[in-house]
Amino acid sequence: MPIRRRTLQQIQHSLRQGELTCLDLVRSYLDKIAGQQDLNAYVEVFDDEALKRAEELDLIFKSGERPMGALWGAVFSIKDVISISGHQLTAGSKILEGYKALYSATAVERILLQDAIIIGRVNCDEFAMGSDNETSVYGPVKNALDPTRIPGGSSGGSAVSVQSGTCLLSLGSDTGGSVRQPASFCDLIGFKPSYGRISRHGLIAYGSSFDQIGIIGYDMDAIKLSYEIMQGPDDFDGTLIPSNQKSSILPDAGPKLRIAYISDALTHDGLHPEIARSFESFTELLKTEGHEVTTVAFDLLEYLIPCYYVLTAAEASSNLSRYDGIRYGYRAADLKQLDEMYTKSRTEGFGSEVKRRILLGTFVLSVGYYDAYFAKAQKIRRLIKEQFESWTSQFDAIILPMTPTTAWKIGSGKSPVEIYLADIYSVLANLVGAAAMSIPLGYDDEKLPFGLQILSATYAEDRLFFIADHMRNLQQRR
Fold this sequence. Notes:
Strand content: 5-15%
CATH class of the domain at 3-230: Alpha Beta
Structural class: alpha/beta
Distance between the termini: 23 Å
CATH topology of the domain at 3-230: Amidase signature (AS) enzymes
Low-confidence stretches: none
Strand order of the largest sheet: 1-3-2-4-6-5-10-11-9-7-8
Number of helices: 15
Largest sheet: 11 strands, mixed
CATH superfamily of the domain at 3-230: Amidase signature (AS) domain
Number of strands: 11
Shape: globular
Helix content: 25-40%
């Protein structure tokens, strides 16, 4: 069995039996990275560092000086918005050119403590703003299934690094679907925890009330294990929930699930017919398995995108104000006037999509427009959350198509509005702070994959994993 298709459990079994070493594992992944550079997934490969760590872990195992950590044998890539001490951290932007992280993110530290290996830093949309991974200063990432197509974004590099077999798992960030959407386009599993479960310390901020570190992989058990290791209180992040905030877990016996889906989502004009057919077929399969499947109406569906983009643009304009060419990052050639230096540094340092969102955010926060846009969007967000909570009080999970289409061509010429509308199904989870996951659902007539999205109540990750695992197994038996 190729290494890239092995689960973490299988890798660890081979390590214990002496059939494999961490050094062999890392070398295999590095060979794959070297042979697939045209995909543009990696912006920095930690060759020497990963090999050295693999050797150290092999020596520890051989000596028996201590038990091996839970993530022994798990090789990760890390999105270029998550801090790794001593390595560059650029968020795919010229404005952070040459900047090196002074500390590691809490999530990174926690996986390293459990003997994970980090193999490199991967490409992403600039400051995680995008749905196609075409806004990066390093150029677009290519989908390994069809290099003429996007992998999704903003965690496109994370998805392709796993998809192409260069690592087992990848840490990305999810602000409005940026882990789940590329997972869908790359035939993988993408998981976003509830807001407040995983520390954002060491994650470059885009929309602070939306951002969450998420995980992309193909091994459900390894994703769940990684989440359990990374989650929990952190003195550096005051937005985290108490560790005793637990969700009820469904019995192992395979109970009758209560599932709802939003009827309005299936009548959306942009929904690919094959995605609609596969989704409807899957709901029928759930019914034949004895589960209760109910449709619910959602009058606020059309407000999801404008609400999301007003609020995230506002938060982005505030968060990105620190990148001014003085404190750190790119600085334009020395100029006599301070305001001229600010303007030129930010104009040259930021890409067009980031500038667009900064301008939009500044506008909606400005005097005279705050109440008309930002305040109104906050009220709509509250109404959306109330509606979502009424559903999750009645149902075990909400299911939706992950995306309205499959991956489009790189350089397709889609307008920003068309790309924003592609997030119609993904932003709901971030607006309400709920846990969500994308699992593979099917393929269109061009053999391009698409996913099924599963949302649970906020802080109900255990329930989400139980249901997603059940649905994944059901889907694979079709």
